[in-house]
Amino acid sequence: MAREKWASKLGFMLAAMGSAVGLGNIWRFSYVAGENGGGAFLILYLGFVFLIGIPVLLAEFSIGRQGQSDVVGSYKELAPNKPWYLAGFMGIASSFLILGFYSVVAGWSLYYFWNYINGSFWTIPDAGYGATFEGLISNTTTPLFWHGLFMVLTILVVLTGIKKGIEKASKVFMPTLAVLLVLLAIYSVTLEGAGEGLRFLFQPNWAKIDSGVILAALGQAFFSLSLGMGAMMTYGSYLPKSESLPSATVGIGIMDTVFAIVAGIVIFPAVYAFDISASSGPPLVFITLPGIFAQMPFGSIVGLLFFFLLSIAALSSAISILEVPVAYFMRRFKWSRRFSSIFIGVIMYFLGVVVSLGFGVWSGVTPIGDLGILDSMDYVASNILLPLGGLAIALFVGWQWSVKEALSASDMTNLGVRYVWLGIIKFLAPIFIVLIFLQSIGIIG
Ligand code: VAL
């Protein structure tokens, strides 16, 4: 059977943007920025996006488009009998870890959407939004239902195939989410105490920077760009060789970053206005946003729309994560798309069950240090596996390929910045990633 292809370059762009923009920009960006001191984290994150993220993203797309296969197959195709494909298995492992918790958080978002439909969240619940949220996530069954529903939706989109499902889902809702976020940001900065929130987000306090903050900023850049796990490689592989990559890559990177910053402008003023701790961790947006909606005009409708769009954004990201192992298993074991999506989706659902129980009956379980189950899986995937995946991508394009091959595979041959890009891919990105790792395990100071 011929491999599937995007219907158009626009379809590819929208799907790749749909992959990048998701819970990472709103939910994860805010709480990771909040936990890591705000302004200084933001600057590091921006630095990593532009210096490492976008250049490596171009490299990842190039490998996929050139290899015309999944994350393992593309490496094997391009460098047979070399161990590069092992990086592909790392990508598959990251996809399991990430979707395992991503779908749980997306389930929370669906639950909020439902509560704005049925009216329960229109007014502040007696216990307050904070305690209500804690009540939800520590419950054994409710979150599992919503997490399951989200996984079913994800599987359905993935099993309808690349063009029909993914392209259509990506096309409609992203611009609406962008407009809504900008409106919310405008409202949020008028809240009393907003100034302090904006200072937290934009005024760097360099004293806050340590190796943990640097690693967190790197991990956030990779997570948010869907980089290093093979999602973008797989999407790139559905692109015909005739389409040009650099402008699409830069567009996707900038757009993803703008979404995160605008989300920060929505969240942090409200964090200070409502006296919520910026370092509340994963619950942060779920306790902050309903507070904004409760006091703004037409807040119930805005809340309903917001959680609908957030769930859709999460869905268009989740399908790109599920696509990584699905594409691999389809090729490797000749499974149908239908069987592959369902089988892998179900395994991921059960991983998510563990994550969800980690907020309730298993809340005492801390696999890594004092990190709970979600945070531990996220740490391994985002701060370790994704940057390692990125390292492999950079080394592959920079050193396995000749200069000529690398430039032609990435459509950079005629661009003035080609040697800057190549310099980043060959030297700067690998060196940075290695140094950050060495620093975070305490080998260098
Ligand atoms: N990049 C997405 C996000 O930021 C996913 C695929 C991790 O939510």
Describe this entry's structure for a reader.
There is one protein chain. The chain is mainly α and 445 residues long. It has one domain: Up-down Bundle (Amino acid/polyamine transporter I), CATH 1.20.1740. The chain has helices at residues 9-20, 23-35, 39-67, 71-78, 85-117, 128-138, 142-159, 162-188, 194-202, 211-224, 231-237, 246-273, 284-295, 299-333, 337-357, 373-400, 403-409, 418-440. It is globular, with a radius of gyration of 21 Å. The protein binds valine.
Note the topology.
Blueprint: H1 9-20, H2 23-35, H3 39-67, H4 71-78, H5 85-117, H6 128-138, H7 142-159, H8 162-188, H9 194-202, H10 211-224, H11 231-237, H12 246-273, H13 284-295, H14 299-333, H15 337-357, H16 373-400, H17 403-409, H18 418-440
Helix pairs in contact: 1-8, 1-11, 1-12, 1-14, 2-10, 2-12, 3-4, 3-9, 3-10, 3-11, 3-12, 3-16, 3-18, 4-5, 5-7, 5-14, 5-15, 5-16, 7-8, 7-14, 7-15, 8-12, 8-14, 9-12, 10-16, 10-18, 11-14, 12-13, 13-14, 14-15, 16-18
The protein binds valine (VAL).
Keywords:
single chain, 445 residues, mainly alpha, Amino acid/polyamine transporter I, globular, binds valine
Mean pLDDT: 94
Kindly estimate the percentage of residues that lie in beta strands according to DSSP.
Answer: under 5%
What's the Cα radius of gyration?
Answer: 21 Å
Helix content: over 70%
Protein structure class: mainly alpha
Bound molecules: valine
Overall number of domains: 1
Number of strands: 0
CATH fold name: Amino acid/polyamine transporter I
Protein name: Na+-dependent transporter
Pfam family, one: SNF
Keywords: Membrane, Transmembrane, Transmembrane helix, Transport
Subcellular location: Membrane
